[in-house]
Amino acid sequence: MLLELYIKDYALVEEAVLKFGPGLNVLTGETGTGKSIIIGAVTLLLGGRGIVEHIRTGCDEASVHGVFAVAEDAPLRMSLADFGIDLGEDDTVVISCLVSRLGRSQRRVNGRPITQAMLMDIGEYLVDIHGQHDHQALLRQQRHIEYLDNFAGEEGANLRRQVKTYYEQLNEHVTRLKELRLSERERAQRLDLLQFQAQEIDAVRLMPNEDTSLAKEHNVLASAGELHERSSLAYSLIHGEDHGAPGIIDGLAGVLKELEPILEIDDTLRDTMELLKTALAACEESSRQIRLYRDRIDQDPERLAQIEARLSAIQRLKRKYRDTVDEILDYRQIIGEEISQLESSSRGIDTLEEQIAKTRLELGRVSERLHKVRMEAAEVLEKHVTHELRELAMESSVFRVDFSNKEDPQGIPIGDKMLAAKANGIDSVEFLLSANPGEPPKPLAKIASGGEISRVMLALKSILASVDEVSTLIFDEIDVGIGGRVATVIGEKLAAIGRMRQVICVTHLPQIACMADTHYSITKEIEGGRARTVVTQLQEIERVREIARMLGGDPGLDTASMKHAKEMLRTAQ
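Given the sequence above, the corresponding structure tokens read:
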């Protein structure tokens, strides 16, 4: 439900706040005062395109804000969750739209920036606007089947959910079957290729991380001569072996020998002595480690050749499959699983074909039940709408719900036919109307008369209001071409719809305005040579004056019109 609408610098509106209540809200005023501006502002909140020309002259930007209450069971909640929008504790949605002269529009829902397309999706759940030339949900044929199912009640809704479940299962099975049902030639070719690759990888008998460890060993063996020579030289330099000059160890021993007599006289260098002893011990251990390393170096040309051959074999696999041994092993596991699937695909195909046949039967059974429920609901809906239209002075009108379906050899069994199935069953539904005697019923979208469209929409809304998912209905001057007793009936029906849904109506008829629960007057004032639209919520005496004006009288002078207006308001209450 639309709780509040704030408009600033939009068209002729300098600033306006409209607080709408439940029931019937009406907007009245002389032609040209700017009533359509209010509807335009709401349209912007529902994802309409913001254009620079709508910005009030002399201003840099226009802004519109709307506060909507969201019911606990409203489908909108799921849509908002999909967009990551939080309702908050007060269960409200605040939509803000800003149009700048720079040509950029900003849209936010509860503070989060969103796109125009996202806002249009959200708006579908919030408000349904119907005007003389506007398309709306009831004029879109694809929505007719949803209204019929909702009118059919819980049984229709449950059957439709079952149909959707079976339809999705059938699609999953068919998709899986297509994946498995490769041609025998393609399957054999693929299987041969994968088996060859598996055998080629298995023949090398790879070990995890083998390429890294072999590369390290190869580097050592390939440099064995150099490693032996350099380690021998290092050992000699420390130990003094094979050299005319003493090694490091001999030098340190000599230094210690010279220090000993000094310490007997002066112990100042005792700490230095200890450091040198530690260094001597470290050098002796280091020389031992270097000697052991040198003696372990194996100059084995045969082992080097084996490693090179192994690395060459691994490199061939890398060029063909993956960059590392571990990745090649992972690939081997993947193709192993595919080989198993291909080898067992014939068994999988048989199982899936059985599942598809069973699901088709179930889908056909439930779709046929849903079709019968829809036919029964359509018969009742036709009678109700026709009755409503006759109350609206369309005595010769005939309303029909048209069913059609398509045959499809690959479809689902219904009786002795195979029919195409969709997620909502086998039916295509469209509402038809004949407004004149002798004329065949035609699609609603092709009705030419605006007055007829208005009355048909009102009749349908009167019947479907209790099942409509949209909480706010806006009727923009649906009273064009209507007057007298029909106008009174329309006012009563709008008020009745207002007991189930919030209704906002722009009207020129006093018969409708007097039924309002909330009444706004739209006027145009000239101030400083500029026109501006003023929105005022009317109370008691102000409503009487406005109804009197709509009756054609002068509220200030015509006491008869004032009396008539008071009587209309009393009758409406």
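The CA atoms of residues 347 and 393 lie 67 Å apart. Try to locate this feature in the token string yourself.
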